[in-house]
Design brief:
Blueprint: H1 3-12, H2 22-34, H3 39-49, H4 58-67, H5 77-93, H6 102-120, H7 129-147, H8 159-170, H9 182-203, H10 206-224, H11 232-246, H12 256-264, E1 271-273, H13 274-281, E2 306-308, H14 309-328
Antiparallel strand pairs: 1-2
Length: 333
């Protein structure tokens, strides 16, 4: 992130920073983006980014960083904290998802899914880029978790072994051949055996098997799904629950919109009663995300009465994922 991008986003969030202090404020965001936080803290940042009250000493966390740089929270503390929280989340969602365990990724995954849920509810953050970066994170993580199951071609034979194989196939029976030097053969054979062993281990890994089984299960689910003729609200609840039950990893496959639309069939364009969907899907959710999961919590005080089936199915699917991510603690299913 450049100073110009940072300055523009802060200004769009109604926070104008003195040019002489711009770099210091940006370094606050960089430090918070690189720090190790649990899901509870990051969910608090999400609440701040949406102008909500957040439990916890977030003011203290920001004040410590600012004081270290001879800055302070002044009369615009609430807006400044909201803007800094937004920038911190955007920076965290911009980081690569590779080379970290699901447990290490879980806090950011939970925070990103909370932002996605709020986007489904049409709640605007202090800066619109936040929802885009949260979606980018969930898509990237979804792809990464499933890419561990893909299989590369086996390693190529080293030159001496390749020549031995070629000679065995082309040399007439009974003809004499020149044997390779044993030391050279061993020198080539050792690293090849190591590469082949690694390939065999990866090809039979649990991750690969789970990814293949997930794809097969979802394919059969779509092929065997009945033509929608029932109540659209019931179809929405069933589709979101069924897709989530087939996911081997969280977050689910990145093509969730298309998968849910295919499952809903003719009901995809129907208008759905939100209160009925909430009544059919209501369940106990972790306290840490109860204020995000409106449908699972009974949908009290929501301004809209109806919505398109496809968008409601996506919304409910994301709420279910958020609840499961929090319940799993380490991001595993």
């Amino acid at each position: 992130m450049t100073d110009l991008i940072f300055s523009d986003r802060m200004r769009e969030a109604a926070v104008v920073l003195p040019p002489t202090e711009l770099g210091q404020y940006r370094s606050v965001v960089d430090d918070l983006a690189a720090a190790k936080f649990d899901a509870e803290f990051l969910l608090g940042l999400v609440r701040l980014a949406y102008g909500r009250d957040a439990a916890g000493d977030f003011r203290g966390a920001f004040a410590e960083q600012l004081t270290r740089r001879s800055l302070s929270l002044d009369g615009r503390a609430k807006q400044l904290m909201a803007a800094l929280a937004t920038e911190t989340l955007i920076e965290r969602f911009s980081r690569p998802t590779t080379r970290r365990t699901q447990k290490a990724l879980a806090p950011d995954s939970i925070a990103a899914m909370a932002v996605v849920v709020l986007a489904d509810q049409n709640e605007p953050p202090i800066h619109p880029d936040l929802a885009s970066f949260a979606l980018r994170w969930t898509h990237a993580l979804s792809d990464y978790l499933r890419s561990t199951g893909t299989l590369k071609p086996p390693p190529q034979l080293p030159p001496l072994l390749s020549k031995l194989q070629e000679d065995s196939e082309t040399t007439p029976e009974g003809a004499t051949t020149t044997e390779p030097d044993s030391d050279e053969l061993v020198a080539e054979l050792a690293p090849y055996v190591g590469e082949l062993s690694d390939w065999l281990r990866r090809s039979s890994s649990a991750g690969r098997v789970r990814a293949l089984e997930e794809g097969q299960s979802i394919s059969w689910w779509l092929l065997s799904s009945r033509s929608s003729a029932g109540d659209p609200a019931e179809e929405v609840v069933a589709a979101s629950a069924e897709l989530l039950s087939l996911c081997s990893f969280l977050p689910g496959p990145p093509a969730w919109n298309e998968l849910l639309a295919r499952r809903l069939g003719s009901a995809v364009a129907a208008s759905v009663d939100l209160q009925k969907v909430a009544a059919l899907s209501e369940r106990q959710v972790p306290d840490s995300v109860s204020d995000f999961c409106l449908l699972l919590n009974g949908l009290s005080n929501y301004p809209e009465a109806t919505a398109p089936a496809k968008s409601v199915a996506t919304w409910l699917y994301h709420e279910r994922q958020l609840a499961q991510l929090c319940e799993s603690k380490d991001g595993e299913r």
